Amino acid sequence: MSQPKLLLSVIIPCYNYEAYVGEAIESVLDQMTPDMEVIVVDDGSTDGSWDVIRLYRDRANCIRTENQGQLQAYLTGFAEARGRFVYFLDADDVLCPGAIEILRPHLRPEVSKIQFMLKPVDRAGSGLGEPFPKLDPAADSGALIELIARRGSYATPPTSGNVYRRDVYEEVGDLSYERSIDGAPYLLAPFLGEVVTIDRALGLYRIHGTNVSGFSSMSAEKIDYCIARFQNRLAHLKTLLAEKKIRRDFELKAHYAYVGELRLMGSVARGRRPSTDLLFPYLKALMAEQSGAPRLFHAAFALLLFALPASLAAKVMAFRVNPSAFSGVRTRVKALMAS
Question: What are 203's strand-pairing partners?
Fold first, then answer.
């Protein structure tokens, strides 16, 4: 395989984001240097997105395909990428001025992933709260691997807050169970190199009614998908570690708090009071995985879902996850979405 010729490839997938994609592209082009490239993939948009995108054809590699879904748009862009590192920027998000300059010193061969915070904004770009998720810059790959073993995940931003060394993706295998691009790769990255955490916002994360990943509602079907996605990611990670002969001893747990909480919410979403068979394993997993204020918060939430009538429990759940109805919890919701 020939060596990549550039340092960084920025890949921007777009589907019907006419109102935002130009700003996303310009936010990168304004910082572009000769060792970078920008690849924009229009996934068969039916609005005016392609008309906007093709205005940048002299400065970016602009590709138009039939509609195949967000994941395939990411992969199409990756197939064209020539950079040693890749950054997937969603078309409704924005890279902050000066971000590339801050990222550049960390684009080193031993680094497998760089993650940074995102600032939530509304349709017009006005701030909606504090940057998220809360990241610990002192946590090295060893600490992140321990979190994966204990919780099945670690704090990481949505897609637009991550830069990956390209080999993390080159042999990642089948991602067809996903809708997005960085589920198994974010878990794999700490095993392949150094994960650098920057505890400041280098991008803007736009919250609006048509977000592909938005949790504007928590239907039973969406909850079931999130559970299956979480489990599939961990199973995929286990397979990759075995194939790469990295950690043959990596084992999956029977119960994870994330899945347990979703199952409680799934019961409420179906109009049923959660059973003790759901509550007790969740609380046991929570005690093993969390401590301090997070443990108390999650335990209280679970007990409310269990104790309240279904109609009231549904309102508590809505307060927790619905950013359009309760602006005060928007930042919290975005952190949950990154799990």
Answer: 95, 118
Express as a percent the part of the chain with pLDDT over 70.
Answer: 91
Q: How many CA atoms lie within 13 A of 289 on its CB side?
A: 25
Token code pair at residue 35:
């060792």
pLDDT < 50 stretches in the chain: 212-216, 323-339
Measured CA to CA, the distance from residue 184 to residue 186 in angstroms comes to 6
Please count the other Cβ atoms lying within 10 Å of the Cβ belonging to residue 280. Answer: 12
Joined tokens for residue 324: 């359009």
Nearest to 312 by CA among 304, 302, 320: 304
Q: What is the DSSP letter of 127?
A: B
Cβ-proximal residues to 262 (8 Å cutoff; 6+ apart), any chain: 223, 226, 227, 230
SS3 259: helix
Q: Are 116 and 198 in contact (CB under 8 A)?
A: yes
The type of residue at 18 is E
Cβ atoms of 62 and 40 closer than 8 Å: yes
Residue 217: the pLDDT is 59
SS3 277: helix
In the numeric block, the tokens 């938005």 are attached to 214
For 265, the 3-state DSSP assignment is helix
Alpha carbon 267 to chain centroid, angstroms = 25
- Tens of pLDDT, residue by residue over 297-323, are 999 999 999 999 988 999 998 887 754
Between helix 310-321 and helix 257-269 the angle, nearest 10°, is: 130
Among candidates 258, 249, 192, 250, which has minimal Cα distance to 226? 258
